[in-house]
Amino acid sequence: MDTSAIALPTDRPTTKPVGEAYLKFRLNAKTPAIFSMRSVQEALVLPARRLTPMPNMPAAMMGLMNRRSRVIWVVDLAQLLELSTLDMNAQQYTLILVQVGTVPLGLAVQQVEGMIRLQSDEIQSPVGQISAALVPYLRGCALQDQPQKPEMLLVLEAEAIVQAPILRTRT
Q1: Could you tell me the pTM of the whole model?
Q2: Mean pLDDT to the nearest integer, 33-56
Q3: Lower CB density within 10 Å: C or N end of the chain?
């Protein structure tokens, strides 16, 4: 048997993955979005009983949660962006915890799908492609090539979301 054709490579590639890391998730069934991993602290599933609703709050404000001895507001991100509403009778919520400066915020989303990498030149202006109401919360849009069909991702800015008018006096 000739084993010379099955030798392991002696010099392994040392190249790093190209582009910035982003967390990909779904705001609703039809709307994929991403956050830069620089703002993301973690993604988790929170049992509904661990979320404390607060009276007299806007509908997007789901309530408060305690995470690692910190009290954090939880917001329905799709509703904040005026896209749709999560099922408020669910047994659990999928959350993305972001932090901008010293402000932590829990963002409830439909589903977290994993990480992707994008080059900065792959992010295009959202103006004219997306509803004008979303533009203040976006860094841009990016096209992701999928086996079925290309998918447009909303590249959200955590800083802009934390500064949303509905949250200014409550975080």
Answers
A1: 0.82
A2: 94
A3: N
